[in-house]
Specification:
The protein is of the alpha/beta class. Helix content is about 30%, strand content about 20%. The protein is built from 14 helices and 14 strands. The strands form two sheets. Strands 1, 2, 3, 4, 5, 6, 7, 8, 9, 10, 11 and 12 form a twelve-stranded mixed beta sheet that branches. A two-stranded parallel ribbon has the order 13-14.
């Protein structure tokens, strides 16, 4: 595997403005899991995108690639928090084409860091899915959690669907084609003990804007729901909540096994789901389980340790400052920041340094070595 070349420049130290290297063209059809797919243009914005006031005295200028929708909201909120809580880093949010596109663009030196997700990162490391035909030569290194999209299934109340096994033969909507939440859902279902149920589902393809109406008309029997706990479900789910009587599709042991056996998703149990996700109706469940698309801040291997450590510190210690602007940002502690950690996947040394100091580091985790960048890809 090739390692990174000597002419890569990842940051500007003690200088004004943010340098961003351009990359022409959209690299894939990945979109943010909110209802905000990319425009039909090339989706690239390689100019200065700093939305806040520059701190001319900051030692490091750091650019972070961020996709649209809810992810952009979180990115801008974190930028505001960095401006308030740090004199070391001048942080700039730069628009990027989805979670997969961010991984490719970071390889092309467009950003010092970027917001992606653990499923995409797992695929990049193991040359799966889109990375099988178009592999990367370096990985974005792990930083810290931004927020999860916790995913589960709801059925129309007038159907006979009560448990996951009942989805065999039903018309099931796993979100719009191209959405990261859809890809993660289907990958969980098609592996392990739930594969036989998945093979019998009638998977529905349509835009999320059309899905609530299709459920209301009886053309969709069951659909995924997802959101961030404490904040609520995403917009199109909120709409079908207001228009259709639904109930939670009870998880089975096989579904739990499939979730826990899939490296690209987290697993969470919620014991107060109606409040956690702000349902407007009784969903018939006191407990649910979810497979989580964990959205995370990652960093280019050549980004210096000190600013990455500083950004990790702010995420762990000043999450309340971020939430003043955007409640979706999840971490309230160092433990929260590192919760979605991928085993055998490199952490940026700056993030690892903070976690070691905070006492949450697992000695089995991997600290990235800049002399071995290409060797972390399987």
């Amino acid at each position: 595997m090739a390692t990174n070349s000597s002419n890569r420049r990842r940051f500007l130290q003690a200088a004004g403005g943010v340098g961003v290297l351009g990359l022409a063209g959209c690299l894939d059809d990945d979109v943010d899991p909110d209802e905000d797919p990319l425009d039909d243009d090339d989706g690239m914005d390689t100019g200065d995108d700093d939305t806040g006031d520059d701190d001319d005295d900051a030692e490091y200028d750091i650019s972070i690639g961020t996709s649209t929708g809810g992810t952009m909201d979180v990115g801008l909120a974190f930028e505001a928090a960095v401006s308030q809580e740090s004199d070391l880093v001048n942080y700039a949010t730069v628009e990027s084409p989805g979670y997969v596109g961010t991984v490719y663009r970071m390889q092309a030196d467009a950003f010092d860091g970027g917001i992606s997700d653990t499923n995409t990162m797992n695929k990049a490391q193991n040359n799966l899915d889109m990375f099988e035909e178009d592999p990367v030569e370096q990985l974005p290194w792990q930083g810290f959690l931004a927020f999860p999209y916790s995913i589960y299934v709801m059925a129309r109340e007038d159907t006979d669907i009560h448990t996951f096994d009942d989805l065999a033969g039903a018309s099931v909507y796993p979100a719009e084609p191209g959405f990261s939440t859809r890809a993660t859902t289907l990958e969980v279902w098609e592996e392990g003990p739930t594969a036989d149920v998945y093979e019998e589902m009638d998977i529905v393809d349509m835009d999320v804007s059309d899905a609530p109406g299709a459920m209301e008309e009886g053309r969709i029997d069951a659909a995924i729901a997802y959101g961030t706990p404490g904040v609520g479900n995403t917009g199109w789910v909120v709409e079908y909540d207001s228009r259709v009587d639904v109930r939670y599709v009870e998880h089975t042991d096989d579904l739990v096994d499939s979730i826990q056996g899939f490296d690209g998703a987290g697993f969470t149990e919620y014991d107060n789901p109606e409040e956690d996700f702000n349902w407007g109706q009784d969903i018939g469940a006191d407990e649910i389980v979810t497979w989580d698309l964990n959205v995370v801040f990652t960093f280019h291997p050549e980004t210096p340790n000190e600013p990455v450590r500083e950004l990790t510190r702010i995420a762990a210690e000043h999450g309340d400052t971020v939430r003043d602007s955007e409640q979706r940002f999840t971490p309230a502690s160092a433990e929260d920041c590192v919760a979605p950690a991928l085993d055998d996947y490199p952490f940026h040394p700056g993030a690892a340094e903070y976690y070691q100091e905070a006492g949450v580091w697992d000695d089995d985790w991997v600290v990235g070595d800049r002399d071995q960048i290409g060797e972390y890809i399987n």
